């Protein structure tokens, strides 16, 4: 069975800069080592956006050094913390579609479609919601219409629906309703999003979806707080998709749990 690895929201900073006391580059290194050691046979690694924290060239250069040893193809995406031109200059080999960082890749009987939901340029101060303009929606529709019998995995950084987490729902995908209608009209697909920094799953308008934790800082289950920057230092995680051609099985694996031991097939967390 073919596999795809997913890492969401690494938020790489320059050397010496941390997020809530965590070094995003070191956390990403640990996640990648665990994921690739366990799944060296994966077809590709999908980075679900917010590759850097500020979209600065020096941050993309640091990301480049972290990814240098990854032995499988890497499929990057844009999030609201990214800056498209700075990324393209450091990763010029990345495929583009109409100037956007998005592409279509087929893995056997599964079609992977990655979308660019970064709103800008221009980049408005404090604006973190996502956008899929008519050009990007047309790219998606063409990719779905031409897949034949293939199952589709569609990836976009910004969720197109409300999650109940108030702060993050205020900066979700602006064209969420049209996007969901398009996905639902085609069916036979699974949607994977980033942005929320939590492991979540559900179904909206008949469209099944999944999300993963960040390698670095995690979001809170805060239903009544409008702050979209609430974070915790829980262990990070990577996602794993098992491709069958007629569907997908999604797993999430935490990395960095302390005191974890395995006894007779049971994993036990040893809390002092």
TrEMBL record:
Metal-binding is among the record's keywords: yes
InterPro entries: Calcineurin-like_PHP, CNP_phosphodiesterase-III, GpdQ/CpdA-like, Metallo-depent_PP-like
Domain (Calcineurin-like phosphoesterase): residue spans on this chain: 3-198
Keyword Hydrolase: yes
Keywords: Hydrolase, Iron, Metal-binding
Coiled coil regions, renumbered to chain: none
Source domain of life: Bacteria
GO molecular function: cyclic-nucleotide phosphodiesterase activity; metal ion binding
Family: Belongs to the cyclic nucleotide phosphodiesterase class-III family.
Annotated protein name in UniProt: 3',5'-cyclic AMP phosphodiesterase CpdA
Species of origin: Yoonia litorea
